[in-house]
Structures are given as structure tokens and as C-alpha cells.
Amino acid sequence: MVTRFxxxxxxxxxxxxxxxxxxxxxxxxxxxxxxxxxxESPLYTPFIDVGDHVIVINANKIRVTGMKTEQKMxxxxxxxxxxxxxxxxxxxxxxxxxxxxxxxxxxxxxKNKLGKAMGKKLKVYAGDKHDHQAQKPExxxxxxxxxx
Length: 148
Known about the structure:
Layout (H helix, E strand, L loop, with lengths): L14 E5 L5 H13 L15 E5 L10 H4 L1 E5 L6 E5 H7 L1 H10 L6 H7 L2 E3 L13 E2 L9
Parallel strand pairs: 1-2, 1-6, 2-5
Antiparallel strand pairs: 3-4
């Protein structure tokens, strides 16, 4: 018996557009990370990148629950002594809402070469315009909060 693994021509990557309007940040991020990793594909193999491309639009209309707007902090280290930089969620969201969504999604992917390859298939835009019409992306509806 031979185990067959998906190769280059076996993987047909699709493009999806996800509208983040009114979506909860964590729920959206976990669903998009699952699509990027290929876990919703019948070809899924843990050590091969079989995921699809995802375009997230309207990142500036995302929702967060609880006290995250006041308490959540984003940290990164510059590599220099005393170089730990911190920024509050509210300030980063006002300045770069696409970065907030991107950080949430990339944080749910593996922290290795495979995770970096998966992360390159993610495109996040603050508004409703994107530059990927030539790829003919399909709209992907995520189960979320009903708009009242």
C-alpha cells in the first residue's frame, strides 16, 4: 500500500473574500486561519501547505468584546537594549485596523516555515476595496452576528 501526498499540481488554491463588518475579531481570525492552513480541504496534510488564499476587507468595522479596547496591548522587541515597544489596542486600531486583524490571524498559525508560507496567502484591507479582482475571489460568508 502506498501513501499518496498532495503535490504541486494536485493543490488547486482558491481565493476567498471575507467581509469583516460586524464580525468578532477572534472568531473571524480562527476561521480564516483554518482556511489558510487548509484544514477545510480534503487534501489536508499537517506538514504540507494546502490552504487557500484569503482577502479580508472592512477590517476597520471589526468588533471586539469585553475590555480589550482599553486593556489589550501589542508588544514587539526591536532587538536593541530597552527596545520593547508597546501600543494599546485602541491606538493601533485607529492607526492601522488592518494590522490588528492580521496579527490576530497570524497568531493562530504555526510559528515555523510552514506558518510563514500560510501567512503570505493572507491579504487584509481596512476598507472595502482590494487589488485582487484578477484572481476572481469567491465571497465567503462566515457565521456571525446578525446586523440589526
